[in-house]
Design goal:
The protein is built from 17 helices and four strands. Strands 1-2-3-4 form a four-stranded mixed sheet, with helices on one face. A hairpin with a 3-residue loop joins β1 and β2.
């Protein structure tokens, strides 16, 4: 194998690791669900690193070990600070407001003179905290919680089947209220959940698959890229007159590399980590009554959800 080929593969691996760092908290949350808090993040099946005996034989020098060290160190230098700062500040009954307040406080600490966070955090994590604490991002929208038949409150999030879940929620409201099909498109905004306790449910999606889905839908789709304006930064991806990306619109791989490198300049809600959705899922996931997965067993989990909440199934 030629030297250029080796360099190309190494750069591809490092580019993949750069994407992995954006979703580290999601991967940590998966560890929590599997009750394996001490297991390496890279041992999770959603990341296809070679964990065979041959790979482990030279783990001090091979790319598997390098990737493991990069990801674990990056988590400890970024998301771990947020988790520690917000510990004890988040409410299970009012997660949206308390998570917003926590991120605002964390950003204030970041902007303090001689902030240890500013010295330690990589730039992409600083911009994530900066953009996530802004109410206008939609991260704290009440529509992220949908009530079904007074049986369960479902956490929904962008690139996690939100449109489909909202449609089912509208069907549920139509079945038991005076809503009509004319206004059902917006019914999720008409009724926001109150703070009484209902069993909580969520369907999790592989964070890397979710990121890729967001890129294809918001950056590659010719109509969505310009009309929905979720492919950020807009000065790079939405200004065709400047021509920064027009030469690469037919080269999806190159466009994806550009998006991974530049999207943290301005975080869009569709790419904010899943673990930061619904008021900080990472902090509350162990209190959810139903957790399904949008993977090869998705339809089985849908059946399990319907069995758990039969009145929801009866109306939708």
């Amino acid at each position: 194998m030629g030297g250029g080929r080796v360099v190309s593969i190494s750069l591809f691996i490092l580019a993949s690791l750069a994407l992995c760092t954006f979703v580290l908290l999601d991967l940590k949350m998966e560890c929590q669900l599997d009750q394996k808090p001490d297991e390496s993040l890279l041992n999770l099946p959603m990341i296809s690193f070679d964990n065979s005996a041959n790979a482990r034989r030279n783990e001090n020098t091979d790319t598997w070990s390098l990737g493991r060290r990069i990801v674990e160190r990056t988590y400890n230098e970024t998301f771990a600070d947020m988790v520690n700062f917000c510990s004890g500040k988040l409410s299970n009954t009012d997660p949206l407001d308390t998570f917003e307040l926590c991120l605002r406080g964390l950003y204030r600490e970041l902007r303090m003179p001689n902030s240890t966070y500013a010295q330690a955090w990589p730039w992409w994590f600083q911009t994530l905290v900066r953009d996530a604490k802004i109410p206008g991002t939609g991260l704290y929208g009440r529509w992220h919680f949908l009530e079904f038949q007074n049986q369960t409150t479902l956490c929904v999030y962008e690139k996690g089947g939100t449109k489909q879940w909202r449609h089912l929620h509208c069907e549920d409201l139509i079945a038991r209220t005076n809503f009509t099909y004319e206004n059902s498109q917006w019914c999720f905004k008409e009724k926001t959940p109150n703070k009484r306790y209902l069993p909580k449910s969520v369907f999790l999606r592989d964070p890397l698959e979710r990121f890729l889905s967001g890129f294809i839908d918001k950056c590659v789709h010719p109509g969505h890229r310009m009309s929905e304006t979720h492919c950020q930064p807009s000065s790079i991806f939405l200004d065709d007159k400047a021509g920064y990306v027009t030469d690469f619109l037919n080269n999806t791989k190159t466009l994806f590399e550009m998006h991974v490198d530049s999207s943290p300049l301005k975080w869009d809600l569709h790419f904010v980590p899943l673990a930061m959705q619904c008021g900080g899922l990472y902090a509350h996931i162990d209190k959810y009554d139903f957790v399904g997965r949008m993977d090869e067993n998705f339809y089985k989990d849908i059946v399990r959800f319907a069995e758990e909440y039969p009145e929801v199934n009866a109306t939708t």
